[in-house]
Amino acid sequence: QVQLVESGGGLVQAGDSLRLSCAASIRTFSTYYMGWFRQAPGKEREFVADINWSDGIKCYADSVKGRFTISKNNAKNTVYLQMNSLKPDDTAVYYCAAAPPNREYRNWGQGTQVTVSS
User: Fold this and answer.
1) Rounded Cα distance, 118 and 107, in Å
2) pLDDT score, position 83
3) Buried-most residue among 16, 27, 36, 85 (CB within 10 A)?
């Protein structure tokens, strides 16, 4: 079982930046893809971005394109989410997740709160 530990959330103002980190305990078949999702109060969890750990191909939700960047550090088994130009609508609990090649996310971190004030 892969353990995922997020860090880096917090309270910021609109326009500010934050970087989230997600450390995976191991890299296996189950971490072929690493992704970030978020869930705002009263809303369903939604996809934010993910990255293929092998070839580095990235995918983003339209709502964050041009503002968020996902990246990885192979040596540290860590994935990052750099969030720039934050908006109040970005307020949510952000979850790191891992998936095998079929991209079905089943391993989840505990989540980290991001709050953006206007």
Assistant:
1) 33
2) 98
3) 36
DSSP bridge pairs for 39: 93
Summarize pLDDT for 2-17 with one digit per residue, the tens. Answer: 999 999 999 999 999 9
Structure tokens at 78: 């860590």
- Residue 76 has phi, psi (to 5 degrees) of -105, 0
Strand intervals (E) in the chain: 4-7, 10-13, 18-24, 33-39, 46-52, 58-60, 68-73, 78-83, 92-99, 107-108, 112-117
Of 67, 59, 69, 71, the C-alpha closest to 84 is 67
**8-49: per-residue pLDDT in tens?**
999 999 999 999 999 999 888 778 999 999 999 999 999 999
Q: Which residues contact 55 (CB under 8 A, 6 or more apart)?
A: none
Strand bridging mode 112-117 / 58-60: unpaired
